[in-house]
Amino acid sequence: MKHLIILLICVLIFPSVSCAQRSNPAGRDQVGVTISTLGSNDVVSFVKMMGGASYYGDGFLTVGISYLHPITKILDLESGLEYSSQKIKIRPEFMPGMSLTDRYGSFSLISLPIGLRLNFLRYFFLSGSFFLASDASTSMPIDSQTGIGANFGLGFKYSFRGRMSVFVNPYQKMHSIVYFSTPGSSHQHLWESGFRFGFLYTLK
User: Fold this and answer.
1) Rounded distance, CA 188 to CA 51, Å?
2) pLDDT tens sequence across 4-44
3) Predicted model pTM
4) What is the 3-state secondary structure (H, E, C) of the chain?
């Protein structure tokens, strides 16, 4: 509960200023599904370490449920729930007489994003969110990604006649900026760069 309170406070102070038209003129809530892929992932550390294995991203797929709630004519609150499957490649440290064959690992994450969507020029939006993520795998090939991360992107949206709408949202995402595991200067962070596709339905 303490971690959720921290996350909500961060979202409430998220800054945004602009001028726009609403894509949902009726001012109604929207729900839908999202798929994130067609990008790359990587494992990074804020401190460069000498020696040890090297870690590289090998693809990912994220599916989720999205919820939009209008706040003003140009601003929406965006939340939901996401499940992510991540793959990485591990290259052993060079040591004489040892095999340098790459090995592969995978792990899953469950995330609760809460953020804002700023609409402009009718068909476009900026999105930013913080998310609370939790490891969903029994073992992790990299450091635990349980913690608070951040996401930012620019999107295009289109509403059909009726209640259906779609969007595509190129984004950048950094995991475990604030991590809940044992502190360490060389903590590994998962970095994503991809496209999020969404299908939304406007509620009555």
Assistant:
1) 15
2) 434 443 443 333 333 333 445 457 999 999 999 999 999 99
3) 0.80
4) CHHHHHHHHHHHCCCCCCCCCCCCCCCCCEEEEEEEEEEEEEEEECCCCCCCCEEEEEEEEEEEEEEEEECCCCEEEEEEEEEEEEEEEEECCCCCCCCCCCEEEEEEEEEEEEEEEEEECCCEEEEEEEEEEEECCCCCCCCCCCEEEEEEEEEEEEECCCCEEEEEEEEEEEEEEEECCCCCCCCEEEEEEEEEEEEEEECC
